[in-house]
Design a protein that fits this description.
885 residues, alpha/beta, 7-stranded mixed sheet, 19% strand, binds ligand MGD, binds iron/sulfur cluster, binds molybdenum atom, MoPterin_dinucl-bd_dom, iron, 4Fe-4S, molybdenum
């Protein structure tokens, strides 16, 4: 008998419902929950591979103090004592919490309560600062509250969907699938993608605006002006429900059409077409994500978009409205509990004395933070200069994900007392902790999360807690109690915390605040356990309400009106000619952030196995790098070395590097070490998408590719990147100075017993060298060395780890570095769900499969989660185009 549990995916903000099944043998499998209103049974590649990422390999299972195992009792006592002593000596602002949108709402609530209400400082900030804070600031300026007005259904109901600064196909794949299905059913629906890069999302776009980096404010100011001059605005809505229109109009009017062309870098025809589409179409949804938020003009971008929706009264109706797509599974829950340094709990304002008094009375707390705390970038600056002396980091990996990451690492290293709560023993951040606290991970922890459409769902426990791992909320409540606040942190269950959180949201609310889930203030444990997904608001005593906001006004500024914001486009001048290129950073389809979980899955690591830079062919020529060569990228803050991926999808003058790779998976690919700590002046969100850098070819003396059953140890070459594969590891390396003796290097790196002799081949003239070690029929490790980037079929070589090598010919084929005539190399993985490679897809196309459906029928590729369908279509198009030439 197997047991099924309904829970929620722990990755992106789509918040898909998952059914986790544990069979008799304890094996876990997952499938989409057909009843969950976010995904109706769909999952993407990351969601589908969840079962592969929950093993205990690398887990932190016991508390540690100074690298030694300790009891919970000792660890918690120490944390409480050090926090209390630091506060007594240096005041409440000398301590800080840096938390995460991957915490559950209950964890987050306790963290915020402890810091703002009991320690009495605003110094709690979160990785949502790097993610959503420009949206929060933009919403609050326009609406008077941090409200996402719409629902996912709106994206399907719209006649025009604008995706700006969003790579929906890869980052919110299930919404992408819902959008693609809606467009297939109703082909008149139009989709516009605004992104400097031609991403996979452009695949379903009718129009792609390859905008200049940070040209968005100008683009939407131009649109605002066009809506007015073409008389598309809604005079009644503006008059009844808004303020500040005249000032916003004057500011937009100051920008000529030609200046908009210049700032956006777009052809006039395209711009006119976009403006015409928007003006003509009543049902418009504008979705935006990090290309908007992560910018020094991020908050203005948000308001420039919202201005256009307010001016046309297009907000809060079916198929209509601005839509901020949130990143993390509980980015929204974190905003609801007030996890940002400049917010109070339950969407109340820290600047408001009334709100502070209300929260303090509700908590019956001895004090309340009197002012906003330090935002992430400033918080780590304060750690660096010694103002913050004790830091607790929870569910985030700032040494990888913060801008100016080397400086952040140095700050953490120098901090007198650092606590890290994580699920892994070894991350780039846990390395610097004085106290390590083992947390429960997905499947073990239990609580609620809120997705992008304000829907609250349960994450449920279906696995036993491993080792001594404990929930994050429990850790903080225990510390709170030990600091002398026993009454306020006497929670026994997460249901009690949720009820208190719901109670605060409804406390003295009466419609004055958007976030109200007072209906749940007395929720009992059984009810909480059975909770089905619901959207807020749900005030006490009211019937379930409409799930959209603002169609009829009712904003949350004191006059209940929205505000237009008068905006100017940002200055664009590059001042330092030594750094002429623009670095853009973001995500790939199958990895999640700093790879602590997705890096465990061979299937997910197969899609893209190395850190890379997308570079335009002409820029590649200029710096003298060819496809598959290595590139060094540098800013005044740091350097990385990554593989070149030469592509016309990238605009000239700009580079794209993913944010995922870190010191656990690569030698020098933590891209945030290069990212400058520049922030939006209003939200404090880092500008991670527009960084001034220079790039040059990285010339190695030798390149090397290896596959091995053991994880390679102590890699010390100028460049290396490793990835999990079926049956072992694959590693790419490049050497300035080659090892004296490759055989001993292999023995040391791959733990090869001394009695095993290698099979080998070396060509002095070309510099090619190959070595393979076998244990009986099994391949332990194979090494391919060349003076140029190694040309060996990667997936074929990886497959050799699981193949039998009893036959001598097979051993020689391996040393020759090529498959025998009877085997084909699958090529780089395209479909992770069914492990289908690019070469297999090309072969199917040659066999006459000329549509995504036909390829799916033949190979299954693209038929499960569908995340790779856009890539399959691109491969078909390029094969057919090549055939037609
Ligand atoms: N596979 C995967 N999915 C994820 C995540 C993950 O790690 N992996 N993380 C989740 C999280 S936390 C987040 S925040 C979301 C992020 O989701 P997205 O925001 O969709 O992802 P990004 O790749 O960060 O950036 C989106 C796009 O913004 C574009 N862009 C850059 N500069 C500009 C600009 O000036 N203007 C415009 N209009 N566009 C620009 C980039 O080229 C990029 O394609 O993804 C979530 N989903
Ligand atoms: N250059 C650049 N930098 C960026 C971005 C970008 O686009 N470009 N994007 C930014 C954005 S939007 C985001 S959201 C951040 C994300 O950046 P991070 O938050 O740093 O990334 P994660 O890898 O998700 O880190 C989560 C950590 O928590 C641990 N963990 C997982 N589950 C749990 C749990 O239940 N409890 C505890 N205590 N720990 C847990 C994981 O092992 C991991 O160490 O990166 C930001 N940084
Ligand atoms: S879209 Fe994928 S990653 Fe996001 S919640 Fe759904 S299954 Fe998880
Ligand atoms: Mo994010």
């Amino acid at each position: 008998m197997s047991i099924e549990t309904k829970t929620t995916c722990p990755y992106c903000g789509v918040g898909c419902g998952v059914i986790a099944r544990v069979d008799d043998a304890g094996k876990v499998s997952v499938k989409g929950d057909p009843d969950h209103p976010a995904n109706f049974g769909r999952l993407c590649s990351k969601g589908s591979a969840l079962a592969e990422t929950i093993d205990l390999d690398g887990r932190l299972l016991h508390p540690e103090i100074a690298g030694q195992r300790a009891s919970w009792h000792e660890a918690l006592d120490l944390v409480a004592r050090r926090l209390s002593e630091t506060i007594a000596e240096h005041g409440p602002d000398s301590v800080a919490f840096y938390v995460s949108g991957q915490l559950l709402t209950e964890d987050y609530y306790v963290a915020n309560k402890l810091m703002k209400g009991f320690i009495g400082s605003g110094n709690i900030d979160t990785n949502s600062r790097l993610c959503m804070s420009s949206s929060v600031a933009g919403h609050r300026r326009a609406f008077g509250s941090d409200t996402v007005p719409g629902t996912y259904e709106d994206i399907e109901l719209a006649d025009l969907v604008i995706l700006t600064g969003s790579n929906l196909a890869w980052c919110h794949p299930v919404i992408y699938q819902r959008l693609a299905a809606a467009k297939a059913a109703r082909p008149t629906m139009k989709i516009v993608v605004i992104d400097p890069r031609r991403t996979m999302t452009c695949d379903i776009a009718d129009l792609h605006l390859a905008i200049r980096p940070d040209g968005d404010v100008a683009l939407f100011l131009g649109l605002f002006e066009h809506l007015i001059t073409s008389n598309t605005i809604d005079q009644n809505y503006i008059a009844e429900h808004t303020g500040g229109f005249a000032e916003a109009f004057a500011a937009a009017g100051a920008l000529s059409f030609n200046r908009v062309l210049e700032l956006t870098g777009l052809p006039a025809m395209q711009l006119r077409e976009f403006y015409r589409l928007f003006a003509q179409t009543e049902k418009v949804v504008t979705c935006y994500s990090q290309g908007v938020n992560q910018s020094s003009s991020g908050t203005d971008k948000v308001n420039a978009i919202i201005n256009c929706h307010l001016a046309t009264g297009r907000i809060g109706r079916p198929g209509i409205g601005p839509f901020s797509l949130t990143g993390q599974p509980n980015a929204m829950g974190g905003r609801e509990v007030g996890g940002l340094a400049n917010m109070l709990a339950a969407h109340m304002a820290i600047e408001s004395a009334l709100d502070r008094d209300r929260v303090q009375r509700f908590w019956q707390s001895p004090r309340i933070a009197g002012k906003p705390g330090l935002k992430a970038v400033d918080m780590f600056r304060a750690v660096a200069d010694g103002r913050i002396k004790a830091l607790w980091i929870m569910a985030t990996n700032p040494v990888v994900s913060m801008p100016d990451a080397d400086a952040v690492e140095a700050a953490i290293r120098a901090c007198p007392f650092v606590v890290v709560s994580d699920i892994l023993r070894e991350t780039d951040t846990t390395r610097h902790a004085h106290v390590l606290l083992p947390s429960l991970g997905w499947g073990e922890k239990d609580g609620t999360v809120t997705n992008s459409e304000r829907r609250i769902s349960r994450q449920r426990q279906f696995l036993a807690a491993p080792g001594e791992a404990r929930p994050d909320w429990w850790q903080m409540a225990e510390v709170g109690r030990r600091m002398g606040f026993s009454q306020a942190f006497s929670f026994r269950t997460n249901a009690e915390i949720f009820a208190e959180h719901a109670g605060l949201s409804g406390f003295e609310n009466e419609g004055s605040r958007d976030f109200d889930i007072g209906a749940y203030q007395a929720i009992a444990t059984e009810e909480y356990d059975a909770l089905t997904p619901f959207q807020w608001p749900q005030p006490a005593g009211a019937a379930p309400r409409i799930t959209r906001f603002f169609a009829d006004g009712g904003f949350y500024h004191s006059d209940r009106k929205a505000r237009f914001v008068a905006i100017e486009p940002p200055a664009t001048d590059r001042t330092d000619r030594r750094f002429p290129l623009t670095l853009n950073t973001g995500r790939v389809r199958d990895h999640w952030h700093t790879m602590t979980r997705t890096g465990k899955s061979a299937r997910l690591s197969g899609h893209i196995a190395e850190p890379f830079v997308e570079i335009h062919p002409r820029d590649a020529i200029e710096i003298g790098v060819a496809e598959a060569g290595l590139v060094e990228i540098e800013s005044p803050h740091g350097k990385v070395i990554v593989r070149a991926l030469v592509t016309e999808r990238q605009a000239r003058g700009s580079l794209f590097v993913p944010m995922h790779w870190n010191d656990s998976f690569a030698a020098k690919a933590r891209i945030d070490a290069v990212v400058a700590p520049l922030t939006d002046p209003i939200s404090g969100q880092p500008a991670s998408k527009n960084v001034a850098v220079c790039a040059r070819r990285f010339q190695a003396s030798h390149y090397c590719f290896t596959v091995s059953t053991a994880k390679p140890r102590d890699l010390e070459s100028a460049y290396w990147a490793l990835a999990k594969t079926d049956g072992g590891w694959r590693t790419e390396l490049a050497f300035d100075l080659v090892p004296d003796d490759w055989v001993s290097w292999c023995r040391m790196t791959f733990d090869i017993p001394v009695d095993l002799e290698p099979l080998g081949y070396a060509d002095q003239a070309s510099g090619d060298l190959r070595l393979a070690f076998f244990d009986g029929e099994r391949l332990l490790a194979a090494l391919f060395v060349a003076r140029q980037p190694v040309a060996v079929a990667r997936n074929w070589a990886i497959a050799q780890l699981s193949a039998s090598h009893g036959n001598l010919n097979k051993r020689f084929a391996l040393i020759a570095g090529r498959p025998g005539a009877d085997t084909i190399d699958a090529g780089a993985t395209v479909c992770s769900c069914f492990s289908v490679g690019v070469n297999q897809i090309i072969a199917a196309i040659r066999d006459g499969c000329h549509s995504v459906e036909a390829v799916g029928k033949k190979l299954n590729a693209g038929t499960n989660c569908g995340s790779c369908r856009a890539e399959i279509r691109t491969i078909i198009d390029s094969c057919l185009a090549a055939a037609a030439e």
